[in-house]
Specification:
The chain has helices spanning 41-55, 71-82, 97-105, 116-128, 141-158, 174-186, 231-245, 251-266, and strands at residues 13-15, 25-31, 63-67, 86-92, 109-113, 133-134, 165-169, 191-197, 225-229, 270-276. It has two domains: 4-34 and 151-283, Rossmann fold; 41-134, Rossmann fold (3-Layer(aba) Sandwich), CATH 3.40.50.1100. Helices cover 38% and strands 18% of the residues. The chain is globular. The strands form two sheets. The protein has a six-stranded mixed sheet with strand order 1-2-10-7-8-9. Strands 5-4-3-6 form a four-stranded parallel sheet, sandwiched between helices. The longest helix is centred in the middle third of the chain and has 18 residues, at 141-158. By secondary structure, it is of the alpha/beta class. Helix 1 packs across helix 5.
């Protein structure tokens, strides 16, 4: 019998069959919305909390705190309760209501501030006070190591070692850093492609960070190429994924798919895997599918 934690990971690869027009390239979406908390962030949340407990950094009765744009917060709210830990989550005020309600359903305290940078500053200040344990996904190696341990090996296994390109949205950059580490160890020729918003675009889950807030876990040498994606392209592709491929995912997944399709159009042959970060039901109160 499996507990909820045992259901994190081993998400399916689903081939993009209609949107891909290059018959010599296969594109697969890794459906991270199939994780019990509904997103790729379940992996990092579990590894950050479990590893800190094993090291003795988190002790019984400690309160956790974290700044999040949504998915990490939901995952941490779920994981914290499984380990009987209280957690406070700091989130931008423009986050969808579904995210706040889901975190609160798991028992988390949620504070809304102006933007993610202010959320990070607030969490850093509270963590430094000694009253909270700050997980700090932006600088915590256990974030990307979750993907080194799980996401990378799953992609390598499930493509039967044929993957040639890996595409991921870049937020905290944990997914792309850890998966790159593993895949490059298997085959240095695998291309790692990140996507970020064009200047002025706002895409939940993907960021173009100001230099002062660039995640400390990010190592530019682990990314071979960055593709900029506009808010409009990410939105349209999220809608197309639902209506054409039956994949109900969020805007960051639309952005990653857009980048994967752009890449496929340039290739003579290949096997592309992109991360479909979460489920579309996180965005129903927004105009994403309106």
């Amino acid at each position: 019998m499996a507990g909820i934690i045992d259901l994190i990971g081993n998400t399916p690869l689903v081939e993009i069959q209609k949107l891909n027009t290059n018959p010599n390239v296969q594109i697969f979406a890794k459906l991270e919305g199939n994780n019990p908390g509904g997103s790729v962030k379940d992996r990092a949340a579990l590894n950050m909390v479990k590893s800190a407990i094993e090291r003795g950094d988190i002790k019984p009765g400690m309160r956790l705190i974290e700044a999040t744009s949504g998915n990490t917060g939901i995952a941490l709210a779920m994981i914290a309760r499984l380990f009987d830990l209280e957690i406070e989550l700091i989130m931008p005020a423009n986050s969808t209501k579904e995210r706040t309600l889901t975190m609160e359903a798991f028992g988390a305290k949620v504070i809304l501030l102006e933007d993610i940078e202010k959320c990070r500053d607030y969490a850093d200040e509270k963590g430094a006070s000694g009253d909270y344990f700050l997980l700090n996904q932006f600088a915590n190696p256990d974030n990307y190591l979750a993907h080194y341990k799980t996401t990378g090996p799953e992609i390598w296994r499930d493509t039967e070692h044929r993957v040639t390109h890996f595409v991921s949205s870049m937020g905290t950059t944990g997914s792309i850093m850890g998966t790159s580490m593993f895949l490059k160890e298997q085959n240095q020729n695998i291309q790692i492609v990140g996507c970020q918003p064009t200047e002025g675009s706002s895409i939940p889950g993907i960021r173009r960070w100001p230099k002062a807030y660039l995640p400390k876990i990010f190592d530019a040498s682990r990314v071979d190429r960055i593709i900029d994606v506009s808010e409009e392209d990410a939105t349209l592709m999220a809608r197309k994924l639902a209506k054409t491929e039956g994949i109900f995912a969020g805007m960051s997944s639309g952005g990653a798919c857009h980048a994967a399709l752009q890449l496929a159009a340039e290739l003579e042959s290949g096997v592309i895997v992109f991360i479909a970060c979460d489920r579309g039901d996180r965005y129903l109160s927004s105009d994403l599918f309106g």
